[in-house]
Structure formats: structure tokens, C-alpha cells
Amino acid sequence: MFVALAQSPDTARAAAPCTSVVPPTGAASALAKRDVLPEDLLGLRDIGPYEVTSPLFTVSPDGSSVALQLRQADAGSNSYCQAILVVPLSGARPIVVDQGGDLIRAELVGVADLTVGSGIPEIIAPLWSADGQWVAFLKKEYGRVQVWKARSDGTGSEPLTKSQSNITRFALTPDGHSLVFVTRPDATGLRSAFEQEGLEGFHYDDRFIPVAGSEPQLPGALRENIETLNLATGSSRLATDAERALLLPASMLPKPAGYTPIDRRSLQAWVETVGGSFATPETTVKYQYSTGTIITCANVLCSQARASAWVIGKGERVIFLRREGWANGTTGIYEWVPGPKVPRLILDTTDYLADCRPSADTLLCLRETVTEPRRLVQIDLRTGKVKTIFDPNPEWAGLSLGRIRRMNVRNDLGLESTADLVYPVRYRAGQRYPAVVVQYVSRGLLRGGVGDEYPIFALAAKGYAVLSVNRPPHLGLLAGAGDLIEAERANLRNWANRKSILSSIETPLRQLIAEGLIDPKKIGITGLSDGSTTVQYAMLHSSMFATAIMSGCCWERNQGALLGPQIDRTFTQVGYPNLLVSAPDFWHQISIVQNAQTIGIPLLIQAADSEYLSALEAYTALRQAHKPVDLFVFPDEFHNKWQPAHRLAIYRRTIRWFDFWLKGEVPIAGPDAKEVQLWTDLDRGQLEPKHSPVESAKQVN
Does position 253 have pLDDT exceeding 70, yes or no? Predict the structure, then answer.
């Protein structure tokens, strides 16, 4: 069901069912392909968020089906269509067992020891009942998150819990008779306490992140209430220690002596950290025989194993994933027979395997390629052959994407990274094209970069060469820093890390210029988060870029004040000068304000309302210096923007901005023409649009 934000998304429930969340049968025709539009990217059906921190799907007890959540954005209603699907591994049509509900967004715990909101969708992985007759999952309606139950044959769904507080996670007991669930009732109480405190004025202290809001944030550590619900009687009680343990990550369960894994999804095999730094651990694979004896894989191929290992067959074979190749840009799937044998390579791929779990002699994975959205595949562990089980986006095959080229990059410090070049759809050899850089993770479907704001394939359809880049390893981590502060201090020293990242962008650009593929005078750069910092640094230290777009901005002298006391202290520890120190030499390397008079490229900022205050000093300085800069603020947004209408508007404006500044295209009429007219005025040094707000109001009246 669609739930329109205009009806207050935390309380409303729409009546109209989704009609497009379940994909049509049959692939799109390959004979009548068309260009990718921003709407195509927005409307992709998604399984989970991009970054995966926990399982996205579960396998039924009999191994015949998987359960997962499908999500599709709709800009028209500014909402999401969501459905729980049971997908038969036989390839039969998926069964919709539940539809509707509001988007559940993850809360980020530990930002300055606080809990803050985000635009990142929460991972919803249905859990199967012991008999496979139903699945349980989290669902939000009327502003409350409960555990729901849906019958696996699609004959109905209903809530299992009636908690007065949002449920954050849950587990089913092995006997299938009870449900263990977690709430944080203190969150509701604290919000009520904030309302009372506000009547006499909030005391400004470590609870504040001013740029994110004018009220205190919730603390990072909130008391959890863990209860057990009897599914037969509906009665609940406090959970026992054994029941509480069902909710613990596998890495926190009792283990053999000396066992310190990242994750343990099998009772007999696991990946263990054996060295390295806090952020770049060295790992290996271990196996425990039924006698309790533990054996370690001593072969180098077991190093750099990813978080999981699984026992298959009769328990004599271990499957694990390993990052390898240039800049660790390849994933290898290996089989290890515990003992001295060399692990056998099953499959080597540059595809993004977002989540995997074994099923008989196969591995089920959610897989993305650079040109294909996430889909459920089955990998034969004997042959390495890949078979698609469920493609949520069959219409995607009917779109023209252009050629993709993987570039191996070595920057001026000798550090390896990779970049993916997306050619213009109608590319012709010998012609130079305007180019756009998208940062800073290029893995899986080339959709929109980190934060998904820069529509790569839609830009390629408009005639741009798009370079999607992976940043190189952070210098502080390579130096073996013991904690984040030490790592960031090393990164900041002489701006070495920022120079390294910029070099990893400029190096492939120079190669493409030398090849005659891109126009050296028509290159744009984009970025969110760390990518935005790189854009800011590039504006001051590179002559390669003709224009830039940021999803947030900026690093300036007042950043500590805007981000609050806790983050300000962290910045001081890292090495940023505080407000009592002018430090002109330091700020000359990064500050837009200090360099406003000499910045020579147009800048567009599309910021969340929870971050835009950080951009105002730089924006105002550029306006005062008569430099072309524009700023758009999106309400009820976060670092990662979540509202479909906003995401589509950002996609479209990104294309308009580059069309104007890199190609000189000016729309003749319509809303786009009015926006571009403002940019024309800015290009001429005129600070304000032709009509003042007062005149515009008169025209409306």
C-alpha cells in the first residue's frame, strides 16, 4: 500500500494497494530498447539497503523457498510500496504474503554517543516458523513498529504483537511456540521529558548536534526491555537468559576457547580475526571437528576472508568468500577441505554479492553486476555456474546502458584503486565527451554513487562519460592506527589523505583525456559525505573541474559549533584548530570562505534540512564574492536522503545543472527554464533572480 507523506507518514495508512511492487512475468524485449530516465532508477525494486549489515533473506526449513522484503519508491505519492515475498527456488512465481506499511528507517547509534535518525531503510528479513507455514517480520503502521505474521501460502497476515513501544528486533524460539522481542521504552519517556524541559529552556550540553536540530538527541545507550510472547495464549513475560541469547549476534554466543570471530553462522566453521588494525583486520578460516579439535587454515588463500564461512555436504567441506585482486576489487568463492589441502577456487567475480547463505550444494546470493540490479541467484558450488532464481526488475533489460570499462588505478602514492567508466550510450570513437565523476564506492549496480544522488546511467543517456570511482585505502589505516582518532590524525596531517583521494580521481581522468575520450574543459565532480569533502578540496587544489555538485557542505572554521560539543572535542583531538585559533595557513587548504574570491567553478549544493546550516557560511561567502552558487534544502531529510520525491528532484536537477554548465543547454519553457534562468543570472554575476519574492507573491495573488 502507498502511504502519502502529506497524510503524516507516522500515523496514516493508505487504502490503495500497490500494483507494481511485484514484477511482471517475462523479460523486456531486447529489440526496442530505450534510454534510462531518472524515473527508471528511482523505481527499481530493492531488496534491502545498499550496505548490508545483517541477513536480507531467509531460507525455509525444507529448503524450497526464501522469504524477503521488496521495496519500491514512488515519487508521485512520495512513498514506498513494500511487500513480503516467498520466492520458490524452483523458479515459480513469487507469492505475495503481505503488502503495505510505512518505511522503517534505521537509527544510527553512537554518533557522538547519541542516537540520531537516518534516511537508511532498516533491514527487514522475515523469519520462518519451524513448520514453514508462516513467516514473521517487522512492519510499521500508524507510527508503531510491531511483529507481524504472514502465512507462506499468501492467504493472510496479521500483527502478532501489540507493544506500546516500537519493536527493534525479535527472534522465534526453536520450538516455535514463543516470540522474543525487544523494545526501548525509555525512548518514549525521554521524548516526553524533553517536552517538559523545553518549557523552561533546554540546557545546551553534549546532547546537542545543532545542525541536526534545536532539541537534544537521544542518548546512544538506551535500556532495552526484552519480553517473550506465548503465541498460543498471547500472554507475555520477561525473557529468560536462554531466550535473550537468541537475540545476540552469533559472535557473542559461547565459543570454543580462543574463538574470536567476526561472525559465526555455522557451529563448525567460522572466520576469525588474527591481526591487523581495528578497521582493517587480518582474518583466516577455522574449523571445529565433532571431537572439539579446532584446525586453522594455514594457506594464504584463507587470509582476508569475509565475515562468514559455511559447512556444506556432510560437514567435510567449508565454503568462504575472500576479497582479492587489484585493490581487493574481486570476490573469490572458495572451498576448503579442512587439512593441508589448498582451497579450491569456485568462482571469481567483480560482482557485488550482498548477502549469501548455503542451500544443499549451492550458495544462494543477492547479486548485483555493474549493469544489473540486485537479484537472487543460485551458485553451483561444484561448477561455479550462476542461475537467476528471482529478478525483481525484468523491465531493466529493455534499457540501453552503454558500455562499461573497469579501470585499474594507481595514484601518485602508489596506492591501488578502481574506477568504472560508463560510456555515453551513443558513443562514437574519436569524439570527446563531457564527463562527470561520481564518488566514492563503485560496486554492484552503477546507480548513483554513495547516497544514490547522481543518476549514472541517466547521465550516460544524455551524452556524458561517467567515471564512478572507488577511493583508495585511507592512509591512517595503512599506517596501522590503533583507533579512529589516530587514523584521522594521520589522514589530516598535511592533508595527505585528501591528496591521495584526489590523485586517484585525477589519474584516470588524465588517461581518458589522453585517449581523446573526454573533453578536458567539460568535467564535473559530485559527492556526498567524504565525497563532498573531496569536492571541496578539489575546488581549491585542482584545475580539472568545470563545475561541481555537493550533497552537503562544508568544512569551515565554525564546524565545531554547528556539530555540537562532543564532535567539537573530537575534531580538536584529530587536529582541527578551534575557534580561538585563526590558523589561516590550515584553513587556506580547505576553506571555501577563505578562498571565495579565487574559486572559479560553479557550485550546486543539494542539502538535507538536518545538514544545510553547515553550508551557509560558504554559500554566503561565494554569493558575496559574486561567484555562481546555488543551494536547495530538502525538508525532513538526513545525511542519506530517503523521500522519493526529493530523490527524483535531485536526479533531475543534477542532469539540468550539468546540461547547463557543461553543454550550454537552456530549456525554452516550463519550470526547468525558470530554474536555469537563475543559473544564467548567476553566471552573469547577478546575485538575485529577476523576480523578488514579493513580486512573485503578487503574481500568485
Answer: no
